[in-house]
Structures are given as C-alpha cells and as structure tokens.
Amino acid sequence: MSSLLEIKSSVLRQVQSRQSLQGRREPAAPASSPVTPCPDSTAPRVAEGNGEFFERMKNILQKQENMHRTAWTQGQDDSGTVPPPETADDACVPKKLTRRELDLLYEEVIYTVMNRVGVPSPDYVTNEGELFSYLQKVFGMEPEEHKIILNRVQESKRASYSLKVSVMEGKNLLAKDANGYSDPYCMLGILLGQNPREPEERKERKFSFRKKDKIEKRSNVREVLAANCIQATEVKPETLNPVWNEHFVFEIDDVYNDLLHLDIWDHDDDVSVAEACKKLNEVSGLKGMGRYFKQIAKSVRAKGDAASAVEENVDDFLGCLNIPINTIPVDGCDKWFKLEPRSSASKVQGECHLNLKLFTTQRDTSLSKRDSHLAIHEKLLSQILRYEHSQVKMEPYNWEGKLSQPAVTVLSHHAVQADLSPLQQAIIWWRCFSSHHRSQRMCYSFLLGLLKTIEEEWNAPSVQGELEASLADSFTLHTDYCLSLLSNMHQVFPCSSPTAITRCEFMLRGIGHIHTMHAFKTVCPFRKELHLEIATVIKKTTVEWYEGMISQYKPDEGTLEEKLRRLVLVVDAVCAEVQRGQNVYNKLFSSSVKVDFFILSYRQLEKLVAGDVSTAMENVCGTLEQEGSQLAHTMGETLFELYISLKTLKLFRETLPLRDTKMLALTGFHEWFKTSIHKWLQIVHEKSCDRIRRAVEVDQLEPVHNLSKHSTSAVDVTTCFIQVQQFWVQLDWPDSAGAFIFVTRLTDDVCSAALLYSELIKRKVEKSQLGQDNKNFTSQLCIALNNIEHVRMFLGNLPRDLDWQTLEQTMEESCGVEGKDQVDKALNAQLYNIDMDLQREAKRMITHLTDKMILDLKKYIQHISLSPDSINNDDAVSPLMKYLDDTLVIFNESLVKENLTRVLQGLWCLLLRMILDTVAENRGVSLEFYGRFHFTVEALVELFHAEGEGLALEDLRNEDYKALEEELRLNKCSSNELIDQFFLEKITQQRKLKHSKFGRISVKCYYEAPDQRLTVEILHAADLIALDTNGLSDPFVIVELCPHHLFPTAKSQRTQVKPKTLHPVFDELFNFHVSPEQYRHTSACVTFTVMDYDWLSTNDFAGEAVAPLSDFCGPDKPSSYGAGKMMQPLILHLSRTKPSDKPVLKMLEARTTDREAQEFVRKLRSQ
Fold first, then answer.
1. What range(s) does the MHD1 domain occupy (predicted)?
2. In whole angstroms, what is the distance from residue 31 CA to residue 372 CA?
3. Is the Cβ–Cβ distance between 1099 and 1028 less than 8 Å?
4. N or C: which end of the chain has fewer CB within 10 A?
C-alpha cells in the first residue's frame, strides 16, 4: 500500500504538436493588449520579511479573483467612448464616380425633378429651387455648370407616362340577380383630358360605358373614350365580394388632366359589351382596335330601343369610379374607393380596392439611354447617402441611414419614374448602404433592417440577370468584410468598449441573417456554411493574439526565474482573454451565428499555453532535481503563481462538454510541479516559523480588545495558518496519492509551527517575569495560556479546513479501504500528538502559575494548622478562602473557559497535596486538628464547584481527594482501629495477589463452633526463596491470630524447621481458641510467617500470608475434623511488603506515647 502513496517520479508531458519557446518565430506585436505589463514586472523581487511574503502570496490568490471581477465589469463605465475604427481592404471599398459620370447622373436627377408627377406627401419638398440647391451640394456643382445642365434638360423631350392599375377586389356590391347575388366585372379606361373652359358642363353628366345618349348630342368628342384605353376584368359569378387581382397598364397623354374611369357591371346577357371588349385583345394595331370599338358602339346604339324593351338581357350597372390622374400620389396609392352612381337616379353601394402607380416609359437623358434604371438609381442613391453621411456630426459611426427631406423627395420621384418595385428598391438600398458602410461605417442594426426588408419583399422569379448578380456580389462582399473585421476583433471590437461590443453583436446578427435568407440561398447557392468560416477565423485570430502576447512579454528571455515570471504574465493574459471570451464574445457568437466562441478559443489557447509551460517546467525540474539544489523564495513564489494561473485556466474546462475535457493539454499539468511543490512547502514552513517568531517578539501580551482574552501573536499565528490553508485549497491537488503526501506534510508543518509558538510564548513569559510583580506576571501568563488554547482550538478545525473527508474519499476510490484507513490513521495521529503536546505545554505553564502561589498557600494552610483548638473552623479557614476567592476572580476574568478549568484542576491538586503533606507532618496530634482540615477540604470543594459553574464534583473527588480523606479519617482513629485498618489492608492485598516470586504455602483452616476452636493445618510450602549461601533455606512457619488486641491470650505457634529445602512439607496441626465475637471482626485473621532458621544469627524473613477468619468461621463453614479432611487446601501466595510503606504504620509510629502502637510497629520493624 505504501507504494500507492509515494511521490511518483516527475514525468513531464511532451508536447509534440507545437514548437518550444526557443524555436518560435516572433510575430509582430499586436496593436493593443488586454493586460498592461508593469515596467519592472520582470525585475527580481526581494523577500523583505515574513509579512511581505504572505502578503505577496495573498495578492497572488486575490489576483485571480480581481481578474474575474474585471472581466465581468470591464467597460461598464465606457459607454460613451468612440469604438475603434473598422478598417477594410481597398478591394472592399466602392469606387467613386468620375466627373463625367457625375455630370450625366446630375442631368438624370435634374430631369427627374423637372418631370415630377403625382401628389407629393407632406414630407416631400415641393419647391423646385430648393431641390436644385440641395442637388448642387450633393454633386458639388457650380452655378454655371448647373445652369448649363438645366438648360439642356429643359430643351429635351418631356417624359412619357403610363398608369399601372391593379384591380384587386370589391366588397358589399349591390345584388342584381334573383338569387341575391351579382356576376360583377369591371370595365376601365382613360378619359382624355377636358378643355378647361367647360368645367360646368362636365359636372352635369357622368360618363358611363353603357350610356344610351347619341353621339351627336355630345358637345365635345373628347368625351368619347378612345378604343385603346378600354380594358375589362373577368366576370366573377354569384358574389357580392369579388376578387379579381388583375393588372392593367394605360398610356397617359396628359398627366394633369386625364381621368381614370371604372365601371362595375352585373353580367346578364350572353353577348355583352364585356365580351366584346375582351376581343379587343385579339385586335392588332390601334387603327384596327378603333374600328372594332366603333362597330360595337354602333351595334349597341342601333339596338338601343330593343334593348330597353328586353331589359332582363342587359347588364346591370353596379357603380363607377372617376379618378383624376393628377390626384394619384407620387408613390402611388393602394386603397378602397367608394362606388359612385352614374346619375342621381342610380342606386349603388359598395367599394372597390385599386392599386394605382404612375411611371415613365420614355426619358430623354443620356444616361437613361445607356444604363438601366436599376444602375442609375443605385448610382444616385450612393451619391446622395455619401453626402448625407458626411453631414452627420454626432456619432457618425452610429448613423442609422436617415435621409433628409430633399433626398427622400428626389429618390422617391426617381424610383417612381423608373418603375422600380419595392423589392428592387430594397435590393438597391442594401447594395448602396452595405457598400458605403465598407468605407464609412454606420449602424449595423440599420443594415439588418434593410436585409429584413429584402426578405419581406422577396420574389425569386422577379430577380434575374443583372439584379441577381449584383445581390449575390453584395452578400459576398459584406460577409467577407465582416469576416475580415472578426479576424481583427480584439482591436475592432474590444471588450472595454460596450459600443464596439454592441456593434459586433448586430454585425454578427446581420451576417447570420444573410445566410438564413431565401434570397441568399437563391443567389449564393455554393457559399460555404457561415459557422465553418467563422470558426476558422476565430482559430486563426486566437493564435495570432497569443503570438502577440508572446512577442510582448518575451518569456524566452532572461534567467530561468525571469522566464517563468514572464510566462505568468502570458498565462494571466490568457485567463483574462478566456474570461472575456466566455462572458462577452461567446454570448454574441452563440446567439447570433450559433458558433461557440469560448470552446474554439479556449481549446486553442489551452494547447498553446500547455506547450510553452511544459517546456519551461522541464528546465525547472531538471534544475531542482540536481543534488543540493535549493529553491529560492522568489522562485518559489513565481512557481506558485504560475501554478495558480494554470489552475485558473484549467477551471474553465468545467463549462466544456465532457467529451471535450478529456483531450485537453492541461489535464495533468500538476505533475509538472510535483518536485517544486515539495520545496515550496518547505519555504512556506520556514516563512511561517519566521513570522511566528516575529509575532511573539512584538507581542505585548495584552488582550487584542475588550472582548478577547488572547493577544496579537495568537491572531498572527492563526492568520498565518489560515493563509497556509488557503494556499493549499488554491493548489487543489487533483492526484489523491500526492494530495495525501502533501496534506500530511502540511499538517506536520502546521503542528510543528504551533508547537514552536507554544515554546516561544512560554519563554517570553518566563523571561518577562523578572522585575515584575506577581499580578502582572499572572496576567501575562494567563494571556499566554489563552494564546496556546486559541491555537489549539484552531488546529482542531484542520480536518475541515484541509478537507480530510474528501481526501479520504478519493483515497478510498483510488486505493480502497486500506488507503482511507491510512489517511485517517496518519492525519489523526498528527492531530492527536499536537493536541497532547500543546496541552502538555499548557500544563507546564499552569504549574508555573500555581507554583507562584505555593508560598501564599503554605502560609494560609499553616495558619489553619497552627490555629488552637478553641478557634472556630470558619475563622481558621477564612484567610485561605479569601485569598483563593480573590485569585479565582482574577483567573475567571483573565482566562478562557478551557484554561480556567485547567488552572482550577491544577490548583485543586496542589491544595490537596499541600494539605495532605501538612496532615502527614502532624500525625499524632489532637482529633480537632484533623477535623479542622476536614472542614477545610469540604469548604474548598464548595468553592471550586461554585454551584456547578466551576469544576464538576467527580473531578473534585479525584484520587488525591480520596487519599486526603483517608488520611484524615485514619488520623482520627484510635491505635487499635489503625491496627485493624492495617490488617484489613493486608487481607485486601492478599486477595489481589494471584502470583508471587516469593513462593506459596498450602494450608487448611476449619472452625469447631461447640468448642470455639480453630484448627489450622500447615501442609507444605513451595518455591520459597533461597536465603542461605547454599542456595537453599531452612524454613519454618509461625502461625498467629491477629490483631493481638482481639486475641490477647492467643500465643503464636510454629512448625518444625525443614532444613535445606525450598519446598518443605510440614503436615502439622495447630489449635486456637476463637470466640464468635472475635472472628466476627473484619480484621480478624490468621497470619503465616515463613522464616529461615539461622542458628548463628537472627532468623531471616522469607515471606508472609494472611487469611481472614471470616473465610473459615461461621455457621456455614466446615466445623469438624472429618469435614476438614475433605476440604480442599487453601493456597496462599507469599509477599514481602515493607512495613515502612504503610501510611498506617507511620501514623502508629508517630504516636510515641501509645505503648501498644509502638510495640506493634517495633514488632513489624523487627521482621
């Protein structure tokens, strides 16, 4: 398993797809860069101190956050700035007209103005002089030149006009048939202009194609409708709302006086005027048409009477319209006309929908004889918009194509006279404005509107030949122009300019709209898909931008550290660029042209960065792996900064699709830093220790503020640890095995730094006690304790701060349960050890604190000890209690809760030991003495418990407390009670003794109640210790009933001596008189003392054992010799306890006036 957790050897990624830094050809530096380098950005940095080191490391981490924030807010306050210029190739800029071309075009537009027809709209300019003045400015014509061209136009023929009439539909017509419907059709034509002298007569009668008045009765032959002006629609059977949608063209002789006349009839007879009129289309030539019309009219007049006699066979009149030509607007009209009666007696109703438009058929200008109307109108519009744009002063780059009234007037008249359809006009406007935009930029949203107009008016069959080719050419030129801008997008559309970004958005929407238009698909069927072209441009632009960064920062120059520092600038610039691409550009491209800008640019930049960094890190690792190499502090900072920058760049992969993240070049970039990270952690540890030393040095050991109980050094230390933890969190090491090693080392470094701090702060306090009073020293010592506790509590959060849980999970996933257990074992062991170490340091300081109180405590305890028996216990204890109360108040104010508990525990143990020592030193005194100290102990318990706010009662009644209580209790006992206690302790020890190196003895004991006789059989002994020089002993056993004050008449008895053996067999029997009152005492027992017989000197003590009489004497115990024979032997292990170790013996020994006590002690000492 350990192999899974070792640091793998550094394996640097070999990037084969791209040349290294040393082999790259330097491109030209870009015009602008998103990152501005500091003039001394590559100068060597000096480690001014530990605070500066951590501040720089903090700035490195904040740099990434600031970069993200800047990318989000960049350009928010620059909405009023002018966007950068949008330059284009000369091939994309339209060519200007020659002077000769301008003169011909000027003649054309003057001719248009002088041949205006139709009713102008309120927005049109009607003053001819104003129009001429405007056109002179547009064309730059001098007055003399204008006069010459004007005279030439005046001498030319006037333009010939025609009227295009579209009969669309009718509604709410009068029902003439029995079925409630009619069979309507229309007859229409042009009434020639009337004599201005006969207006009144004209008003008396209204013309009708079916009037029965004789021709000779008419006062003017001009009222007769010429045959070449008669047209008729289809008959729409059985309807009151007919839809015809038929189109007719009429030549106009007099646009000022002619009249459009229209009749609507209900078709009834088999052969009607409508049928005859239809045959006019079959007659060729105006003369033939005239003769045929005369025959129809004559036939109708000849049969006039008959027709009136058979009324049901005649077409019924449904209404008419009379529209003067001079009332038609310039742009034509498309409206509903209310039907009129032919006389006051006629009954009509309903409306008719007509579309009327005037246009010229012949123009006497040089340009119109040479070029098409489309080409002429395009030239005219181009010339006008060039002038109009030049007059825009406020934000000309954002001009929305709004033309002045003279310009609109001239263009409208020319479009009408040239008979340009709305689609043709839309195409011409698009071509002119898109072409003009390439030389002088304007609003992209306006261009988008022109495209939408083409789409709305699109009719593929009507766009052929020259018009189709010109539209395709305009689409291609505009798309290529926009792609050329995208190839320079960092300069043309920088994120720092919201205006430029808005322009980029509408530009993308424009070219995106072009490629979805039916018009584009029709005229440019073989153009590549737009998203492929844009993707190619983005990739190329991204590479060029990166090469510009390399050229600007030159990361292949200088020392190794300088190269890395320059490389950091490059990576940071890439991160900023990727962030901008994600936040700004990607939204534009994704929504407008369905291209993921972020994925394309990120994959390019990520690959380029990986190639350069891997090359640089090869050199770094090669240097660091050399024997004895050291990592300079500044180099370590640079490597850390480079790692953080790369990690930031890699984090952008989270927004990529999963399939794209597996092949990224930065996937394993952390492997490049494995060697350097180890050395960097060493630098961090050294700097941490230096910072801790400095923090302790400047610490005044005063609370940071009123609400805290620790000083500045504790804050500095935990802040240092927090920063170290943040460094680790930012590293975010992805390899579980490597992460475990780093976390283990980081934890060990933090723990050792914490231990160093505890030692330093303790030394500072110890050093500062010289020359200080006890109060100040106590205050400083309390603050030092709080500092250590502050750090200890902080370290308790290491598992959370260093995310041990995630580490355990990853190790379990990669190495199984064994890996998880190893993490848990190693890290928790470190944490446990440092916790123990810090608590140990705290206890030492607490001991130091309580030791300062020993003299005062001795004084007050001695006061209690020396107080006469006549003094009340409260008075004797009062000085000690007041001293402790004042001291505990100071502790409570100065210490945090955990330390207060520790100090109370330490002080409590000290008091118990001191009282115990005092009692032990005063054995054999009066019982009142011990009672007073018992009172003192109980008062102290109450003080330290503080009604549940202090120490818990179970903590107060610890082993020291129990020992003191026992000492006091025993000292209040009589000598016989102490002797009883002595044997009770021996009985207890005997029962606990399960094995002994001094051997064992086998006995039988049974009691005969009738005779009150105790029988003791000494059977044998085994494994006795050798006390003679021959390696053997001469053992014998002394049997006694104890204690003697219970058995005053009982004499000790002994066995025979068994020479030269360690396993003697005695088989001897002894009898003792024991009354029930005697054996009922808990201390009553039989003692077996094994001795080694020496005839020349004192017998040697070999061991002893004891058996309580309660085990043999009593109603439920064997009581006859025969029963005793059946008993199992009792095996007792021997012991050789030193009598001086017994507190009871010391108490008895202290009672020098008690003869029995002294005799008992003497006898035991003599063994």
1. 640-761
2. 46
3. no
4. N
Q: What is the mean pLDDT of the chain?
A: 82
- What residue has token string 């002789």? 253
Residues 78-91 have a mean pLDDT of 67
Residues 888, 904: Cα–Cα separation, whole Å = 8
Does residue 1075 register a pLDDT over 50? yes
**What is the Cα–Cα distance from 853 to 863, expressed in whole angstroms?**
15
Of residues 259, 322, 262, 254, the one with CA closest to residue 117: 254
Residue with tokens 């100040």: 776
Whole-angstrom distance, CA of residue 473 vs CA of residue 431: 9
Beta bridge partners of 1108: 1085
With contact defined as beta carbons under 8 Å apart, do 241 and 352 qualify? no
DSSP 1137-1164: --GGG-HHHHHHHH-TT-HHHHHHHHHH
- Which 8-state DSSP code applies to residue 340? B
Evaluate if residue 1166 carries a pLDDT over 90. Answer: no
Residue 425: closest CA among 510, 332, 513:
332
Residue 1067 burial (CB count, 10 A): 9
Instruction: Look up residue 1044 and give its two tokens.
Output: 């003697």
DSSP 127: -
Which H or E run includes 941? helix 927-945
CB 372 within 8 A of CB 466: yes
d(Cα 995, Cα 985) in Å, to the nearest integer? 18
Of 911, 985, 991, 918, which is closest to residue 951 (Cα–Cα)?
Answer: 911
Query: How far, in Å, CA of 1038 to CA of 1058, rounded?
Result: 13
What are the helix (H) ranges across 515-596?
518-523, 530-553, 560-580, 586-593
* pLDDT (0 to 100) of residue 88: 57
Residue 516 parent element (H or E): none
- Token look-up 């006349």 returns 261
Residue 1103 pairs in a beta bridge with 1090
Helices then strands, each counted (H, E), the chain: 41, 16
Q: Is 110 left (phi over 0), alpha (psi -120 to 50) or beta?
A: alpha
Residue 1133 has pLDDT above 60, yes or no: yes
Structure token digits, residue 1046 = 């219970």
* 330-354: pLDDT as tens digits: 888 999 999 999 887 788 899 999 9
- Residue 193's contacts (CB-CB under 8 Å, 6 or more residues apart) are 222, 253, 254, 256, 257, 258, 259
* Length of the chain, in residues: 1167
- 478 contacts 430 by C-beta, under 8 angstroms: no
Helix axes 597-624, 633-651, angle to 10 degrees: 150
Q: What six digits make up the tokens of 1002? A: 């086998």
The Cα 163–Cα 328 span in angstroms is 10
- Ramachandran region, residue 118 (left: φ > 0; alpha: ψ -120 to 50; beta: rest): left
Judged against a pLDDT cut of 70, whether residue 972 lies above it is answered with yes
As a whole number of angstroms, the distance between CA 1039 and CA 986 comes to: 16
DSSP string, 694-741: HHHHH--S--SSTT--S-HHHHHHHHHHHHHHHHHHHH----HHHHHH
- Residue 1022 pairs with which residues in a beta bridge? 1000
DSSP 804: H
Each residue's pLDDT tens digit, 50-69: 567 777 767 777 776 666 66
Sequential DSSP letters for 848-908: HHHHTTHHHHHHHHHHHHHS-TTS-HHHHHHHHHHHHHHHHHHHHHHS-HHHHHHHHHHHH
Q: Are 320 and 340 in contact (CB under 8 A)?
A: yes
Contact 320, 208 (CB under 8 A): yes
